[in-house]
C-alpha cells in the first residue's frame, strides 16, 4: 500500500488536475478548422498523455521513497503472445513544422570548438600535421618581444630548448629549414632580431660542411645606398671584429681576410679607416708576426717597417748632378728621429 503525505498528495492533485484540464480542452477543441487540424490536436493529446505517464512514474518513485517497499510478490507465468492486429487506416498528414536554423547548429558547433581552443590543452604525444600548419591572424598583434606576436613561445618554465627545427633529409631536400621573408618595401622594422643578455653567444653559426661553395655565413646585398654588413661594438680590450684562422700546415694560399674589388670600372678603396671627431691616439695600423710589431702606423702618420722599406722603382745612378732640394726624416721603432735622407734635384 502506497501512503503519501498531505503535501505530496496536494502537489500530485494539482499536477493531475492541470493535465486533465489540458487534455480535456484539447479533446473539446478537436474540431476541424482553418487554424488547427485534427491531426495536430491528436498529436497534442498524445503528447499530454505521455507527460501524464511520466508524472505518474515520478509519483510512484516519490511514494517508494516516502514509504518502505512491500514484500515482493511471486513472479507470474508469462502469457502467450497475442496475434498481431491489422494495421489501421492512415491518418491525415500533419502540418509541416518550422524549418530549423542551420546557422544556429553551426554556431553551436563552432562555440564548442572555440571553448576547447580557449581552454588550456596538455599534449602528451607528438602531433602530426599531414600538410601545412598555417597561422593567419587578423587585426593588430602586440609588437612586444616577450609577450607579443601572432605566435608566442614562452620557455621560461622549461629547461630545454625552446624551438628545434631538425632534418636528416638528403639530396632530395628542396627547401630551406627556415625562411624569413619581407615582401613589402615599406616594411619599416628588421625582418629578424636576436637579443640576448645571457652569458653565451648571441648568435652561433656552426658549419661542418666541406663543400667549396658552402659558406658558414653568407650575406648578399643589392642595396647601393647602405652598408651590406654593419657591426658596432663597445669593447675595452677586444676587437669589435675578430677573425681567427686555424692553420693546417697546408694553407699557404689561405688568408684571414680576403678582399676582392669586383665590377667593371670600379673605383672602390681596398681599405678605409677613419677616426672622426677628436680622432684616436692609438695606432692606425698594427701588423704583428709572432707577437712582434712588423709594420705600424702611428696616430700621427709615422710609418714603421721593422724589416726595412722596399721599393720597386729604383734605377742605377753614379753621380750627384743637382743640389739637395728636399729631406726625409727617418724614425726608429719608438718614434725617435734617426736623421734625414737628402733628396737631390738630379743624379746621374
Structure, described:
This protein has 3 helices and 5 strands. β1 and β2 (292-297) form a beta hairpin. It is rod-shaped, with a radius of gyration of 49 Å. α1 runs antiparallel to α2 (38-66). The protein has helices spanning 6-28, 38-66, 102-118; strands at 285-289, 292-297, 303-305, 324-331, 337-344. It has 348 residues and is an alpha+beta fold. The longest helix is centred in the N-terminal third of the chain and has 29 residues, at 38-66. It has a 3-stranded antiparallel β-sheet with strand order 1-2-3, with no helix packed on it. Strands 4-5 form a two-stranded antiparallel sheet. Among the domains are: 6-65; 281-311, no CATH class; 315-348, no CATH class. The model is unreliable at 26-34 (pLDDT under 50). The chain starts with 5 loop residues before the first helix and ends with a strand.
